[in-house]
Amino acid sequence: MLLSAYKAAWNKTFLAQKIRFFNVYFGTFAFESFTGRPMKYTIDKKENYTIITIDEKKLDTSIAPDLKSEFVKLNAEGITNLILDLNNVKYTDSSGLSSILIANRLCNSSNGLLILTSLQDHVMKLISISKLESVLNILPTVEEAIDRVFLHEIEQDLTNKED
Fold first, then answer.
1. Quick one: which of 82, 137, 80 has its CA closest to 112?
2. Do strands 28-32 and 50-54 pair parallel, antiparallel, or not at all (unpaired)?
3. Ranges of residues in the chain whose predicted pLDDT is under 50
4. Most exposed: 87, 113, 120, 154, by fewest CB within 10 Å?
């Protein structure tokens, strides 16, 4: 009985590893959150920026810790410009805002940018109530965010040449 329980647990772990490999290999990430629910998002890495698209309706306490970890990992890889596409996010709470602020701090500390795009009304309202619209870079579309990243890169190059 104990041996069959051990085999079942090992098979479940092995299967989970294979699924994670498949998701990472094909560019779709689904990490288990602290609640055991997979967090769904995609990462599209380009030369000068990375786009993170959250494929969740809620950015709350069940997802925010994993998102913070992902931001820290990307920063450690040397990624300085992040575009966070929140088109699918209909609701966020203070823990979701906290993860966004951590990403903003990480990007700023490495002379990069965090840009939020495609904010839904509730998310924008919470940012406004929190008085964060002057702290965060918010643009309507991903395309405008990409243009802003390239402008930022040009400004950085000019600043470096003057020094």
1. 80
2. unpaired
3. 2-3, 5-6, 9-35
4. 154
